[in-house]
Amino acid sequence: MRCRWPHTCWAERTETMDGTPRNGTPLPCSPLDAGQARLIAESFRPMQAWGSRRDYYYTRGKLGSDPLYDGVLRHLPDDGQPVLDLGCGLGLFAHVLRQRGRQQEYLGVDVDSDKIARAQRAGSGLADVRFDCLDVQAPLPAHGGHVLLLDVLQYLDEAPQLELLRAVSARVAPGGRLLLRTPLATGDRRDRTTRVADRLAWLVGWMGTRPRHYPDPQRLQATLAAAGMQVAPLRPLHGRTPFNSWLLVAERL
Questions:
Q1: C-alpha distances in angstroms, 172 versus 15, 243, 247?
Q2: Which CATH number fits domain 66-251: 3.40.50.150, 3.90.79.10, 1.10.3720.10, 2.30.29.30?
């Protein structure tokens, strides 16, 4: 069978013995080092000695193990255009952005009001950073610049996913980029591991909704191309984690 996108022939996709996808080498990105992760985690320490340290330890573990932040920053132009982060959670990307000396205006939104409140407290000292509670299926805020959509799509059904991609594309300014990380429906070991982990995150209450639909890569790329975006090939962005994480970079010329 001939693939529409030769660089992503999913019908023939398999893994090597070490779990590396044969259709692409993982991006050479690294997690934050222990010192960098600890500095950001300090913002999430509870104000009382007896308060919960869940966010503190989560932040240290997330930043110290996931190459997401390095991978996204490598593809996010430092051009002064504002950044809209959809599904921002605790807003860790804003902290990394400022730690790396990036001064772009940042707006992070998430449907989880409790996480947004914790993000606002931890990010109160960050200049030009705002957090708002918003469901990504509601009308999105006015924006023209770069857009981040990181580990969000699988929590929407297929039709809302495609609607969101169209709405997001309209908010990418000329010269701006959409940076999207998502697991994909690939049917392999990483796919199965990711589905189990996402469901567990919902069951223990870390995520407020269950996973609903894992995107088909060809449909994802075609939707963005139809919205006028120039779409680069998908690349694995999972580092040493066991998850099926892929980065897609789309640009409006």
A1: 34, 28, 17
A2: 3.40.50.150
